[in-house]
Structure formats: structure tokens, C-alpha cells
User: Which sequence fits this backbone?
């Protein structure tokens, strides 16, 4: 076999080690890597290697199913052009629409569509047909040349020299429903769809989301795991609450890892009750409360057979800061409002090649739409961006005790704060309206050793200057970028400054093809925002 050639920037040593680990374990692997350490790239490398190996055995197509939280769905698609090996062709898409649409589309991608419609659109079972109209499945196919531009074309065509990797991405919540579908449940329908898709690998990103022993999504993923030859789990938070969280995750990954050897030489997986009896100390009321743990070294030894662990503090060759773009797919109403606003602006501009100050301010109204404010006086809708930020903070960064979210608009800040408020998470809100006394009290607490999980949601200009307390956080989310590049630079420096002891990851929620991309690109290239906005409006296609 020829030497494998990874795509994109050079890999760090821990990523190369991670690839070797996945090869050694035959693709049944756990990458327990902290956020921002590049586990997606390492996983895509393994998928590339697997695709090439299978091609040598006259198997020109390798199919992969990725199940992940909402915040990561489009990210998986957008990362393929960046990291995929040039030695393979690939098709990557995020399936949307109703649950039935997703099931039909997934089955069709494996070449074994359902004999009759499940109640969804027929378009859902035709590979390559991306629809965005109401009620039809949404598929996102990434263009080869622009990581945040979506098209309906195959990214890299497969040919005799390039075997094809097919990656289908679904929100984990897809597998949470057990509603009746005729004589079956939705879980049965989805399991059937996965069987028809026939993946070689199933990847569960942020696998701690399935830690619930009896949750619907956890049980369905366990059933799916028994039907595929290779399973990969990714998380930096394998034990968000206790070591008992491991059981459900390993039920999917390797159900025989924690097992009893029977007299006939076979193995019987431990039930959760047996797992708890072995690794937990029980006490309290009627002896039914977990009061401690035992045999944790044994647990870690069992996990080490499949697990690769990477911490930022130990990965000395990582850059000081890491930037991660989190794509956000706007809802139908948000897309409609955005298109309508652009049409109005085009009519007002006429043939002028100059943007007046007032017109630029009106163009910035587009940023409010991508944030979820889609109508004059209507306030915030159920913003797609807010929902992605919620998933990012509560799922991807679940183990972080300090997180900062920078936003621009007051309505946006209120919506984000409301979405993030949950048991175990305390949200601090700072805007220009917050009194100096309250600001200082919150900043002081944020920097303290208080064990509470604190998420600060703040207005960029309010917290981008003369603030030193945010160094206790190593993750910051930018919901909407500021108009001035200096505000962005200063806000980043609130975390990446003297006193920071960890590598910092900055997350940017960006709606592809919108003003979000325009502002980000302009800041990166230090270009003219006025010119970029004019070009965006004139070239926009609804």
C-alpha cells in the first residue's frame, strides 16, 4: 500500500499517535481528547486510511455515520475539505428535515431505500438532491474550495484512482424519539435506516451525551453499535458527573470490555447494576445512594485498551490559541427574512457603487437576522445560532467550569443567557446597562476559586478593555462578531494574556454565505467592510 497522505495542515504528534491508535484497535476506539486538540482531523485521517485499505480489497466505497450534538453537525461537513486526504474522493452531508425524511435519506444513501415512503418527501430518498423548502430534507454538500460555502455538487468525485468516502451526519437528538410509526417505533425505523445505509464506521461525537443508562438516544445508539464493525467515540468529558457515566458510553463502544468470563469461555457483559455494584460504594438512605467509588484503577485499565487521552496542558506542540468555526444553518424563516432584507437593500442601492454611512448601518441589520431577530418589533425567534451555542456550551464544553460568550446585541444576549440557564450552570450577564458595582462583583467571582460552573455572557465592547479576570476561562464563544476588528482583538486578549495557564480555544458561530462570513473574512484580511458588504449584497443569491 502506498504511503498515506493527510490533507490540510501538518498534524501534531498526538494526532499522529491517535491515528496509529485507531489503526491498532481496528477502528473501535475512544479519543478522550480535550476540546480544541484536533480529534476530528485525526478521525478523518483514519477514515481516509480505511477507505484506501478497503479499495485495495475491491470495495471502492466506505460509508460512515456520524452522530453528534447540534453544534457539531455542520462542523463535521465543513471539516472534510480541510482535512480529507487528496487520495480519496468524498461526499459529506448533514441530513435534516423530519425524522422520517432523515431515515429515508439515510437508507437511500446506502443504495437500499425503503420500498415505500414512510410519510416523508420522495426527495429524501434520492442521493444528491439537496432541498431547503419547508418539509423537505436538508442536505449540505461542501464545495471543495470554500469551507463555508455550500453547494449541491459532490465535493470530490470518485474515480478509479480515488475511492469514495461517504459521510452522513445526524444530530444525536434524531435518535431520542420513540413515537409510533405504524406498528413500529421511530427507534425501530431509524435502526432499519442505519442497517440499510450499512456503515463501516459509526462515530459518536461528544459521546458523554449518551451517558444516560435508560435514555432513548443511549439505548438506540447501543443497538446501532451492535450492527457495525467499527465504532469511534469522541469526547473530552468522559465522566461529566461520575465514573458510572462510562458504562453507557462503553455499551456502545465495546460492550464486552466490562464483562464476566463464563465457564464456557464466553463473556457476559455487565449490566449497569452489576457495573455499579463493582465500581461504586453504596450507602445513604436504605443503602441505595452512591457515596463513593472503588476499583477505579481497574476501570481505567479496561478503558485504556480502547482509549487515547490527550490534554491541552500535555500537548506541548499545540499552538497557544486555536480558532474553531462552528457553522450554523439558518432556519427557513431566518433565511427568508435575510433574503427579503437583501432584496430591499439592492433596490435602495440602485446602480450606485458607493455605500453611504446610513446604508452600511442598514446592512449591519443583517447581523441581527443571523442572530435570530427576523422581524421589526418581533424580537428573537427560536434562533438557530442560539441553539447551536447552547449545544456547544452545554455539550462540547460540559466539563469547563468557566466559559465566556461574547455577543453584540442585547436581545441576543438575553436569548443566549436564557438558553444556557440550567441546573449546574450559573449564567452571569454583563452589558453596557450593568452597573459598575455589579460588573466588578461578577468579574471578581469569575476569577475566584468558587467551584460553581460559571458562564459569562457579555457584550463585546463592555468587556473587551481593561478586564483581567477572564483568564480563568480557556474557551470563549463569539456569537456575533463586532463591526470593528480592534474590538475582536481586544476581546480575544481578555483570555489570552498574562495569567492564562492553559491553551485557549476561540469558537465562532458563523452562518455560511451570510454577513457573518463577510465580517469574519474582512477582519482576517484587514479589508474594507464597506466594500465587502456591497459585494455581498450585490452577489447574494436567495
Assistant:
Amino acid at each position: 500500500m502506498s504511503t498515506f497522505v493527510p490533507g490540510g495542515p501538518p498534524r501534531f504528534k498526538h494526532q499522529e499517535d491517535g491515528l496509529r491508535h485507531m489503526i491498532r484497535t481496528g477502528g473501535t476506539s475512544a479519543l478522550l481528547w480535550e476540546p480544541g486538540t484536533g480529534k476530528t482531523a485525526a478521525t478523518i485521517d483514519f477514515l481516509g486510511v480505511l477507505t484506501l485499505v478497503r479499495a485495495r480489497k475491491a470495495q471502492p466505497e466506505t460509508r460512515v455515520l456520524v452522530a453528534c450534538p447540534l453544534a457539531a453537525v455542520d462542523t463535521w461537513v465543513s471539516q472534510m475539505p480541510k482535512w480529507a486526504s487528496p487520495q480519496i474522493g468524498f461526499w459529506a452531508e448533514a441530513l435534516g428535515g423530519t425524522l422520517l425524511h432523515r431515515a429515508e435519506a439515510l437508507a437511500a444513501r446506502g443504495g437500499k431505500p425503503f420500498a415505500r415512503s414512510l410519510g416523508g418527501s420522495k426527495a429524501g430518498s434520492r442521493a444528491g438532491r439537496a432541498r431547503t423548502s419547508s418539509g423537505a430534507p436538508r442536505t449540505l454538500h461542501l464545495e471543495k474550495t470554500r469551507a463555508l460555502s455550500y453547494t449541491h455538487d459532490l465535493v470530490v468525485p470518485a474515480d478509479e484512482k480515488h475511492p469514495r468516502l461517504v459521510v452522513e451526519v445526524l444530530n444525536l437528538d434524531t435518535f431520542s424519539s420513540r413515537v409510533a410509526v405504524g406498528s413500529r417505533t421511530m427507534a425501530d425505523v431509524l435502526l432499519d435506516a442505519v442497517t440499510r445505509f450499512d456503515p463501516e464506521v459509526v462515530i459518536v461525537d461528544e459521546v458523554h451525551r449518551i451517558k444516560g443508562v435508560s435514555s432513548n438516544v443511549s439505548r438506540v445508539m447501543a443497538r446501532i453499535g451492535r450492527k457495525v464493525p467499527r465504532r469511534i467515540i469522541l469526547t473530552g468529558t468522559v465522566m461529566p458527573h461520575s465514573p458510572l457515566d462510562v458504562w453507557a458510553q462503553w455499551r456502545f463502544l465495546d460492550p464486552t470490555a466490562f464483562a464476566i468470563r463464563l465457564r464456557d469461555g464466553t463473556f457476559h457483559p455487565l449490566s449497569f447494576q452489576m457495573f455499579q455494584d463493582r465500581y461504586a460504594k453504596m450507602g445513604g438512605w436504605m443503602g441505595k445512594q452512591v457515596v463513593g467509588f472503588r476499583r477505579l484503577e481497574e476501570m481505567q485499565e479496561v478503558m485504556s485498551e480502547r482509549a487515547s487521552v490527550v490534554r491541552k496542558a500535555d500537548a506541548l506542540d499545540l499552538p497557544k490559541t486555536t480558532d474553531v468555526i462552528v457553522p450554523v444553518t439558518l432556519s427557513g424563516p431566518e433565511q427568508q427574512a435575510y433574503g427579503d432584507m437583501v432584496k430591499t437593500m439592492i433596490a435602495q442601492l440602485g446602480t450606485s457603487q458607493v455605500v453611504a454611512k446610513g446604508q452600511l448601518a442598514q446592512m449591519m441589520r443583517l447581523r441581527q437576522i443571523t442572530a435570530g431577530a427576523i422581524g421589526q418589533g418581533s424580537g428573537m425567534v427560536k434562533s438557530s445560532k442560539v441553539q447551536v451555542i447552547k449545544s456547544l456550551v452545554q455539550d462540547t464544553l460540559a466539563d469547563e467550569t468557566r466559559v465566556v460568550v461574547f455577543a453584540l446585541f442585547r436581545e441576543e444576549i438575553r436569548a443566549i443567557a436564557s438558553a444556557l440557564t440550567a441546573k449546574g450552570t450559573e449564567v452571569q450577564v454583563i452589558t453596557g446597562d450593568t452597573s459598575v458595582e455589579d460588573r466588578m462583583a461578577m468579574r471578581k467571582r469569575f476569577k475566584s476559586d468558587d467551584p460553581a460552573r460559571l458562564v459569562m455572557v457579555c457584550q463585546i465592547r463592555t468587556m473587551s478593555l481593561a478586564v483581567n479576570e477572564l483568564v480563568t476561562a480557556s474557551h470563549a464563544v463569539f456569537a456575533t462578531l463586532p463591526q470593528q476588528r480592534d474590538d475582536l482583538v481586544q476581546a480575544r486578549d481578555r483570555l489570552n494574556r498574562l495569567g492564562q495557564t492553559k491553551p485557549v480555544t476561540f469558537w465562532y458561530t458563523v452562518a455560511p454565505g451570510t454577513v457573518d462570513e463577510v465580517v469574519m473574512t474582512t477582519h482576517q484580511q484587514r479589508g474594507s467592510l464597506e466594500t465587502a458588504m456591497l459585494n455581498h449584497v450585490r452577489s447574494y443569491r436567495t
User: Anything to note?
Assistant: The chain has three domains: 13-254+306-310, 257-305, 321-539.
